[in-house]
Amino acid sequence: MERMRSSKEQPTRTSSSPPPRWAVRSARLIPLIVLPTGLWRLAMVCGFPSGYTEAGFVPFETPGAKMWMLTLSIVCELLALLSLGLVRPWGETLPGWLPVVGGRHVRPLAAVVPAAVGALTLTAIWAAMPWWWAYPHPDMTPVGSLVVGVLYQPLVLWGPLLGAITLSYHRRTRPRRLRAAH
User: Fold this and answer.
1) Do residues 126 and 119 lie in contact, with contact meaning Cβ atoms separated by under 8 Å?
2) How far apart are CA 50 and CA 128, in angstroms?
3) Which of 47, 80, 133, 176 could be cross-linked to 34 through a Cys-Cys bond (beta carbons 3.0 to 4.6 Å apart)?
4) What is the pLDDT of residue 175?
C-alpha cells in the first residue's frame, strides 16, 4: 500500500509549459558541438596523428593515453546528450523502464544545480579557446594547428548554451507558488 505524501514532502508540481523552441534547438546543438572534437580524439586512438608532428604524436601512442582519449570522448558526448533532459519529458519524470526510480519526478534542483555547475565549469574551461592561434604549438603541423583550432572553437558555446537551457528549465519547473510570486 502506498502511503500518501504530505505537501511538505512533495513540492507543488508544475504542469510545466513546453520548453521554448530556442532551448530545444540549443539542447540539440550541444551534442553536435562536442562531436567533432570527440571524433578527432578517436582518430588519434586509431593511430592517425590528427595534425601532430611525428615526434608530437609519440605520447598519444601509449595504451594509457589511448584509453584516456577514448574515455574522454565518450564521457563528453554523454554529458552533452544530458542537456537534452532539460528540454525533454524525461528531464522532469524519469522513464518508467528505469529500475527502482522509473516514473518518479525529478526534483528540479537535482537537475538545475549540476547543470549550472557544469555550465560555469565549461565556460571557464573553454574561455581561452578563441586565442588558440596566439600560442605556439610546436608539436603540431601548421595545418594540424589550424584544424584543431577550428574543431575546438565551437566548445566555447557549450557552457553558455547549457547555462541558458538550465535557466529555461529552472523557470519552467519551479513550483507554481514560486512562479506566481514573480
Assistant:
1) no
2) 22
3) 80
4) 74
Question: CA–CA distance from 146 to each of 52, 72, 152 (Å)?
Answer: 11, 22, 10
Helix boundaries (H) for the chain? 21-45, 54-57, 63-82, 108-126, 142-152, 158-173, 176-181
- What is the distance between the alpha carbons of residues 70 and 73, in angstroms, rounded to a whole number? 5
User: What's the pLDDT score for residue 78?
Assistant: 97
Cell, residue 117: 555547475
Q: How far apart are CA 48 and CA 5, in angstroms?
A: 58
- The number of residues making up the chain comes to 182
Whole-prediction pTM value? 0.85
- DSSP at 94: -
Indicate the SS3 state at residue 93.
Answer: strand
Q: 137-166 burial, b for 16+ CB within 10 Å, e for fewer?
A: bebbeeebbebbbebbbbbbbbbebbbbbb
Give the integer Cα–Cα distance in Å for 63 and 41. Answer: 14
State yes or no: pLDDT of 14 exceeds 50.
Answer: no
Kindly report, residue by residue over 114-158, the tens digit of the pLDDT.
999 999 999 999 999 999 999 999 999 999 999 999 999 999 999
Distance from C-alpha of 26 to C-alpha of 29, rounded to nearest angstrom: 5
